Amino acid sequence: MNPSFAKQASTGPVLGVETSCDETGVAIFDPARGDAAGGLLAHTLYSQIRMHADYGGVVPELASRDHVRKLLPLVRETLAQAGLRVADLGGVAYTAGPGLVGALLVGATAVRSLAWALELPAIGVHHMEGHLLAPLLEPDPPEPPFVALLVSGGHSMLIEVAAIGRYTLLGDTLDDAAGEAFDKTAKLMDLPYPGGPALAKLAEQGRPGTFRFARPMTDRPGLDFSFSGLKTQVLLAWQASDRSNQTKADIARAFEEAIVDTLTIKCRRALAATGARTLVVAGGVGANRRLRAQLAEAGAREGFRAHFPRLEFCTDNGAMIALAGALRLQAGEHETPAILVRPRWDLASLPPLGVPIAGVG
Predict the structure, then answer these.
(1) Is 39 contained in some domain?
(2) Looking at residue 292, which CATH number applies to its domain?
(3) Which terminus of the chain has fewer CB atoms gathered within 10 Å of its CB, N or C?
C-alpha cells in the first residue's frame, strides 16, 4: 500500500505523539510529499528503560511523570529537525489507547491543548493501528488485502486487513502476549531488563535440540495464542537444571524457537484461511531476528511475502502515530475537543477510513 496523499487536499504536516507506555515518541509526517515513505520529515524518541530497570518493569506513575518532563522538549527538537514552526502544522495526532491511562493522558492533554491553541484538527490514534501501518513507512510498502501479525509486550493477534480501517480479528492471545512471555521468562532466569531482547541475544549462544518445549495450541484448529503453559514448562526445566550459563543459553534458545515456531505456524494458517499472499509483522517482537528469518524463509517456500518495519519502528514510536493520524485526517475524520483516552480499545471497532469520529472516549 503506497497511498498517494498528493491526490487529496493536504492538511499540512501532521505532528504525531506516542506516550502509551514507557517511550516518548514524536514525529512529523507531511502528507503532501506524495507517499508514505517520503513523508516522514523528522522523528525523535526517548526511552525510559534505564529508569524502569531498577524496578524490573514499568512503573506507571513514574512513566507518566517522565512523559511530562520529556514531551515538550522532544516536540521542539522534532520541529527543529524538520525545519518547521508550530504555525506550519496542519494537524496533530496522539495515541489515545490502548495503554497506561496516565501515560496516555499526558500525550492527549498536550496535543489537544496544542490543537485548541492553533485551531488545528486533531485525531486520537489506536496504538495497534499505528504498529499495523508502520511498514508503510518503508520504500516498498505492502498493499491490502493482507494478514497482520501484531506481537508486542501487550498483544499477540492476527488481523485480516481488507483496507486501512477495515480490520477483522482472526486470533488473539488467551493469556500472556508473546512479548510478555519473553520478558517473564527472562526475569525467571535473572536476565537484565528489558528481558525480551536480552533473552533473544542469549539464545544465539544456545545449542539446538538440548531442550524442546511445546508449540502451544498448534495441535488444534484455530488462530488464538496461549503462552502461559510454555512459561510453566520453562520454569520446570530451569528448576531441574544445573543453572549454568550454557544451560541458561540452551533453555533460552529452546524457548525462543517455541515462540517463533508457534507464531510462524499461526501466520501460515491465517494466510491459508484468508487467501492473502502478504503478511505484515509489527510490534516489538517483530524485531526478533529468528522470527524475521523464519517467516522470510517460509514465504520464499510457500509464495507469500513478509513485510517488517525497520527495527526502530518495531517498538513504540511517534512516526507510526503521525502516519496513522495523517491518513485519517486526510480522509476527513475529526474529533471533539474533549481530552479522552481508552486504556482498552478493540482494534476491530475502529471505523473504516473516512468515517467521521465524534470522539474516542
Answers:
(1) yes
(2) 3.30.420.40
(3) C
Is 245 marked as binding a ligand?
no
Instruction: Judge if pTM exceeds 0.90.
Output: yes
Ligand-binding site membership of 288 (annotated) = yes
Structural domains in the chain (count): 2
Q: 152 labelled as ligand-binding?
A: yes
Q: What residue numbers bound the domain in which 284 lies?
A: 142-308
Structure confidence by residue, pLDDT tens digits, 255-308 = 999 999 999 999 999 999 999 999 999 999 999 999 999 999 999 999 999 999
CA distance to 15, 23, 31, 49, 146, per residue, from 44 (Å) = 12, 10, 19, 16, 29
223 among the known binding-site residues?
A: no
Is residue 117 assigned to a domain?
Answer: yes
Residue 183 marked ligand-binding:
yes
316 is in an annotated binding site: yes
Tell me, yes or no, whether 88 lies in a domain.
Answer: yes
